[in-house]
């Protein structure tokens, strides 16, 4: 009972802290728009021919099916950073010295993560109910509408919550590398849910398709099944209508059993790898270590050495530089921002940058736009994602904002981000200019102008890098790498002579900078 009380207390305290932030206010608005987009503005096509009668069950399955996939990808930024927050706010010192077991602390964090995602799921269900009352057919059946969210969405959210805890306890996965790995695993989970007989139904789409296939077969004897995929269209014209009775609890639960094994495995790994905030015992991958910073080097010194250093520094008197009022110096601030952006990265990151600078000049010209440049622009991701959020991560807002103009610092951060992106793909820019490839040049320039602006807006408003990291990785995967034109920020698959997408992203860059400025002013209020 003591263990469960401790876990519940950690979960309650952590959830209360998260619920106080005003950033969560935007979530209901986004979910309401998403529910309207899925239920009112589009039609789900099943098996290329069929669509459901818009009953309560159909609305629940319709939104829960795609909503689970979306929350699997974008739910991670909502829960990632809880343990890191305890580190930066010195709560870690109390946890480390308290009679609190590692398992109760981590399970409490998982429960807090899951509760937050369950609240998001509940809000999505509420938006779905409103859409049904406005556009649906037949009586409002609460159970039929809620079952897809309970059986499909909530188990997946428990996995996301466990991943958020697990990745924070593994040192090499606490930063951008962990976010990238999570995205790859989430994409693998979505792809793994496509085969009709997939053993691990992470998104719940297998259970949903099997249930709908049974309903279609009972109403259309000519249906041969199984349902290979779902698709969305703007109109239901020419579709065969079928009435879906909703999910059956038994089969749906059986298909979700592997999910609970994944949750248990992630939590076990978390408990085994948790260092209880003792950074001197942290392990790493050697080649992928961060460069040693002054703070890290000091933290690794024995206590006797720290004591001697403290005494010697106190004997010699203060050594702080005098405060001057010489005004804002753009060049000095820009150089300092670049140093913060580039210093202390993992060795593999520097190797990747060198490989991009060496490989881009010799790569085939035809591969630059669709492959080489999009991949090279992944390298600045850890630099961009930190911008705008760095002051909140390290809790230095009062110190920095009191000594410098915050909006000027924001502009310097943007210039540094643009410079890093430009440097990484500079050989490609030169080659585009030499061969007269205007579409390649305009697309690459648009990317290095838009992406840092989007990162600034996301960082200032969210206070964490993971939101931009996940959003960028999703856009990169769907846009340049898979040809989704709306997300092709670099023009990888764009036809020559058309710059409409680039104009749109340049406009979006200006809007993002305005949003970031508003957010920074809000921090000063």
How are the strands of the largest sheet arranged?
1-3
Write down the domain tally.
2
**SS-based class:** mainly alpha
Shape: globular
Sequence-ordered SSE layout with sheet pairings:
Elements: H1 2-19, H2 26-39, E1 43-46, E2 50-52, H3 56-74, H4 76-79, H5 82-88, H6 91-97, H7 102-135, H8 142-169, H9 176-192, H10 205-219, E3 230-233, E4 240-242, H11 249-255, H12 257-273, H13 294-299, H14 303-316, H15 330-342, H16 347-359, H17 365-376, H18 381-386, H19 390-393, H20 397-403, H21 406-424, H22 426-435, H23 438-462, H24 466-478, H25 500-524
What does this structure look like?
67% of the residues lie in helices and 3% in strands. With 525 residues, it is an all-alpha fold. The chain has 2 domains: 2-281, no CATH class; 330-524. Helix 1 packs across helix 7 (102-135). Residues 282-326 have low confidence and may be disordered.
């Amino acid at each position: 009972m003591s263990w469960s009380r401790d876990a519940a207390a950690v979960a309650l305290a952590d959830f209360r802290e998260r619920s106080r932030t005003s950033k969560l206010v935007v979530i209901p608005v986004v979910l309401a728009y998403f529910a309207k987009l899925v239920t009112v503005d589009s039609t789900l096509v099943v098996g290329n021919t069929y669509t459901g009668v818009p009953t309560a069950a159909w609305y629940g399955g319709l939104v829960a099916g795609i909503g689970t996939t979306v929350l699997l990808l974008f739910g991670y930024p909502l829960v990632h950073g809880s343990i890191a927050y305890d580190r930066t706010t010195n709560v870690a010192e109390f946890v480390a010295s308290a009679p609190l077991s590692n398992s109760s602390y981590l399970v409490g964090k998982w429960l807090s993560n899951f509760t937050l995602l369950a609240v998001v799921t509940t809000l999505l269900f509420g938006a779905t109910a409103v859409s049904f009352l406005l556009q649906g057919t037949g009586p409002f059946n609460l159970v039929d509408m809620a079952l897809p969210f309970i059986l499909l969405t909530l188990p997946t959210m428990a996995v996301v919550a466990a991943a958020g805890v697990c990745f924070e306890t593994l040192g090499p996965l606490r930063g951008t590398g962990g976010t990238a790995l999570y995205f790859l695993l989430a994409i693998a989970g979505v792809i793994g849910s496509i085969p009709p007989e997939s053993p691990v139904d992470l998104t719940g789409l297998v259970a949903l398709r099997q249930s709908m296939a049974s309903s279609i077969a009972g109403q259309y004897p000519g249906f041969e099944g199984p349902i290979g995929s779902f698709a969305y269209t703007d109109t239901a014209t020419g579709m065969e209508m079928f009435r879906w009775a909703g999910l059956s609890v038994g089969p749906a639960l059986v298909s979700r059993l592997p999910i609970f094994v994944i949750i248990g495995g992630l939590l076990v790994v978390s408990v085994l790898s948790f260092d209880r905030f003792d950074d001197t015992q942290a392990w790493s991958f050697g080649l992928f270590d961060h460069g040693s910073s002054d703070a890290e080097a000091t933290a690794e010194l024995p206590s006797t050495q720290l004591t001697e250093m403290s005494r010697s520094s106190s004997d010699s008197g203060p050594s702080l530089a005098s405060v001057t009022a010489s005004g804002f110096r753009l060049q000095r601030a820009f150089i300092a921002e670049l140093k913060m952006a580039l210093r202390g990265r993992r060795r593999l990151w520097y190797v990747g940058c060198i490989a991009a600078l060496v490989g881009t000049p010799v790569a085939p010209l035809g591969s630059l736009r669709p492959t080489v440049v999009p991949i090279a622009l992944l390298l600045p991701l850890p630099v961009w994602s930190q911008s705008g959020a760095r002051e909140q991560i390290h809790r230095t807002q009062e110190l920095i904002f009191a000594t410098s103009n915050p909006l000027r610092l924001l502009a310097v951060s943007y210039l540094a981000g643009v410079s890093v992106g430009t440097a990484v793909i500079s050989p490609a820019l030169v080659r585009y200019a030499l061969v007269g490839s205007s579409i390649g040049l305009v697309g690459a320039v648009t990317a290095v102008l838009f992406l840092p602006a989007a990162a600034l807006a996301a960082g200032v408003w969210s206070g964490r890098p993971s939101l931009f990291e996940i959003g960028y990785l999703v856009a990169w995967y769907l846009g340049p790498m898979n040809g989704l034109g709306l997300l092709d920020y670099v023009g990888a698959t764009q036809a020559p002579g058309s710059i409409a997408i680039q104009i749109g992203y340049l406009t979006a860059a200006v809007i993002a900078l305005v949003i970031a400025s508003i957010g920074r002013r809000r921090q000063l209020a």
